[in-house]
Amino acid sequence: MSRVWFETVAEAQRRARQRLPSSVYSALLAGTEKGLTVSDNVAAFDELGFAPRIAGLSGHREQGTTVMGQPVSLPVIISPTGVQAVHPEAEVAVARAAAARGTIMGLSSFASKPVEDVVAANPRTFFQIYWIGGRDQVAERMTRAKAAGAVGLIATLDWTFSHGRDWGSPHIPEQMTLREALRLAPQGLSRPRWLVSFARTGRLPTLTVPNTVPLGQPAPAFFAAYGQWIQSALPTWDDVAWMCEQWQGPLMLKGIMRIDDAKRAVDAGVTAISISNHGGNNLDGTPATIRCLPGIAEAVGEQVEVLLDGGIRRGADVVKAVALGARAVMIGRAYLWGLAAAGQSGVENVLDLLRAGIDSALLGLGCSAIADLTPGHLVIPAGFTRRLGDADVPG
To answer: If DSSP codes are grouped into helix, strand and coil, which group holds residue 186?
Structure first.
């Protein structure tokens, strides 16, 4: 495995843009409508400052923690993202990288690689599930994931099926047929290294999603599964409680942005929640997740594990999230850029950069462990937080 080093996540993004066809790269940027939420997810971290110390600093900093019973060497885990056509090894490469760096792999229901292969690459895999079909179909997918060895379940409910973008959405074919391949050929030829990486495997980028059906059944095309999802009856809180009972193991509910929803999640029996706006791919105009973290952590942090995803680009962002009440964060675009830039080693590179940034921030703050972090280590401007769904605060 070749080793290509980059110094920042921003550099990984730059290399991903250089390597990928324009439509593939545009799909990674994503974000609905005007992209207000995508922008705020990142910009909000810049509003938070640090209150550093200069003497009596700790010579050793501990980053390890646990997420839903699984030990991790740093408070960063892989967020599930669908069809990773940025690299031939896709989710398997990401899983290997996460295992090599001592952390958890989140695998999407819409992944391009089977859950069995991903768990083999990283036994600490959480399987992510959407509410597609009804309880019988959801139970089938849970059964397959558990049989494969997934050690946790992530239920994602934050999706309004909005796909409009003011700057235009890339064309994604329903199936990668020869006709589609010829239509997209100019893009591919403009990025020969990406094209050659797939040519060496003898296969075109796959747009099928094998984890949405029982093992042994033909994998449907992405848009076939997506269409079923859109047409499925929307889940209720009773369905969330049913999932917890059916899974009989650690379960994270992803997509929480409101305090009242966080409390309902606790009542439903979840193990953890992730404060998430689907990376800006849900309802545009939703606040940045880091703005909603303090209120939610205060309300339910003693009852469930609280994670956060959205906008993480450096180790300092991770430290800010942990200081405000998150046990760990989940990353998405950051590792996809690393995967596009250099495969497994690129994902490892991103995780190494985050680890180094966390260590530097802990050193400057005089902390010997991430568990020492508190809001007192931050400079928080007035009006920064958003307390959505708080009965005590209007709005």
So the answer is: helix
